[in-house]
């Protein structure tokens, strides 16, 4: 309520009222000067009355208050969550809404909810749709609890996804088995290979195919025994060391099975990842930037005698 300064009519009563009014006005003017900042005080320092000082302040800052409100509303419309957490994002939105309310432009609950949902991003579209479809308005505190809980759920799902072990579609190449069995004595028959070198209990050696005609002769007993080869019928060696057999590499009785690699791609192999050395084999592919590695046990790609090659997935 604005009251004008009483006009003195020369009486004692009117003069007392005028003096009291001037004192009260000076106190109000002092309060205005003390409450303004150092940059604003010089602008109203020349005011004679509190009404004059307030009028100057209103003329200078009333239009700028409307501009400020429009600026804050624009910031509220364009605000995005980005990399901030939900509590930090909601705090920033609430600060803008409170600042707009201080300029006498309060934001309703529906408008505030709309501003918040528009800036959350696609990660919150699952919860934004039912909130928009509600018939009853949500208070800021209720919306805060819903969004914070949904953010915690998304974090748990993200942690569970990162702990998934990558399972690749495994195909094996046919390993080359070389029966590199060199060596003499690699093959042994069950009945022995030197049938002509039987040893008797009396320390004498004899050929079982020769007739025992001179067993009692001292010359025959002292004569060195020469075995006969069962392959070439020559004396002086056995079939094991026969020269005619040395040109043919000896090999052991072994059997090797080969498992040809499957060159067909499976439509659904239940694998989360597929690995190939040729990107043309895959219609849709992307470069792997993780820390896992594929170790080839057959040494493919390594030098002879080198270490096992490690290749990135």
Automatic annotation (TrEMBL):
Domain CCHC-type: 228-244
Domain of life, per lineage: Eukaryota
Presence of keyword Metal-binding: yes
Stored InterPro entries: Znf_CCHC, Znf_CCHC_sf
Residue stretches of biased makeup (Polar residues): 188-201
Region forming the signal peptide: none
Pfam families: Retrotran_gag_2
Keyword field: Metal-binding, Zinc, Zinc-finger
Record GO terms (molecular function): nucleic acid binding; zinc ion binding
Region (Disordered): 173-222
Keyword Metal-binding: yes
Cross-referenced PANTHER family: PTHR47481, RETROTRANSPOSON GAG DOMAIN-CONTAINING PROTEIN
Protein name (database record): CCHC-type domain-containing protein
